[in-house]
Amino acid sequence: MQTLITNPLIKSLRPQEKPYEIRDTKLKGLILRVQPSGIMTYYVEYKRGSREKLGRADAITPFEARDIAKLKLADFCQGKDPAEQRRLAKADTYLLYLETVYKPWLLGNLKTGNAAFMMLKASFADFHGLKLHEITPWQIEKWRMKRQNDGAKPATINRELAALKACLKRATEWGYLKKHTIENVKLCKLDNNGKVRYLLPDEEERLRKQLDLRQDDHRKKRTAANQWRAERQYPLLPELSEIPFTDYLKPAVLLSLNTGLRRGELFGLKWSNVDFQRKNLTVVAETAKSGKTRHLPLSPEAFQIIQAWRSQCDETTVYVFEGPDGKPLHDVRTSWSGLLKDAKITNFRWHDLRHDFASKLVMAGVDLNTVREFMGHSDYDMTLRYAHLAPEHKADAMLKLVTQRKISKDSATLDTVQNKPQRRTQ
């Protein structure tokens, strides 16, 4: 309905079963919306499909609504989009931007989105009340010094800072920030060729032995439990002596040692990703850290392990290591720490099983490019950390240099002798 909106008109309007609107004939874009409840509200439609609320008819007059609408329309003509202004105001501070804008994007685009959001919120708590443009290089340096004094490692600081830089880069792209204020802030220098933790021969022997002892202990306890239940005529539990593994830990550890999979990749592995015929497995892009699919051949031990584990798993399971809720297994801290303690192995993380895999390949003479492909490294520099574990290659290179120099020296000496003038004999 189109007519001139006046006070007499407003008094004559009656609510209906559904909302309806009156469009003002004096100012194009001014709308009066009447709800079934009887509430009447002014809106200004500054472009097709986009409108902004001005106020209720019992609070402002038609003349005031028309004046406010004129100002809104004038702003829009000058390039000020009310929706954009509201959006920017909504993300006024770092915390508001993080929670209302960046978090939804993280959750929708990264499999570790929630963890990234929690890290950005906790690590930069001092920035919560700052405007985005107030996060300057000096603010970052103060934050960095504080983190260092708190004992944070350079790699941790770099990971947090890189996440913040990515966060503000998005803010710049999306129009919440005019200029990426910390784009040129550099990360801490790291020694990527530092010591890599892998299992020494005696440590690996103890780890494997303890995995077997742990299974033996499980079987003994199950036998004792069934004996106790039989004496009381209770239903018996399944015998563990009839299956290859008593639980997930041994196959998970040995597969990690033989494949170098990241923990998330291992526990996200589905049976459909294992090709028993070709004896390989596929790390799909959804679970790979690099976001790229890669294929890994299974060593004889790895194939034997996964084949035996498949034989005792329910056919309906989706994941190779599946929790009781049907989701991937994720928490192995208790069993893993207990295993390390019993095996008397210190300063060794689950992720170091991956380092062990790469280290043993390099020490066996496998070229670094093949190691990079197996590990799924997106950056060759990540693989170079293992280069020092192939000392025989460096020794061979030095030997070739020494040999070449010796040949050159001998050739020069021979040339000198041949060209030296001979003394005449009387």
Count of separate structural domains: 3
Number of distinct helices: 16
The CATH homologous superfamily of the largest domain is termed: Intergrase catalytic core
CATH architecture of the largest domain: Orthogonal Bundle
As residue ranges, the low-confidence spans are none
Alpha-beta content class = alpha+beta
The Rg value, from CA coordinates, equals 35 Å
**What is the strand arrangement across the widest sheet?**
1-2-3-4-5
Helix content: 40-55%
Write down the CATH class of the largest domain: Mainly Alpha
Report the mean per-residue pLDDT as an integer. Answer: 86
How is the quaternary structure best described? single chain
Largest sheet: 5 strands, mixed
Report, as a whole number of angstroms, the end-to-end distance. Answer: 135 Å
Order of helices and strands: EHEEEEHHHHHHHHHEEEHHHHHH
* DSSP strand content: 5-15%
What is the number of E strands?
Answer: 8
Q: Kindly report the CATH topology of the largest domain.
A: hpI Integrase, Chain A
Shape: elongated
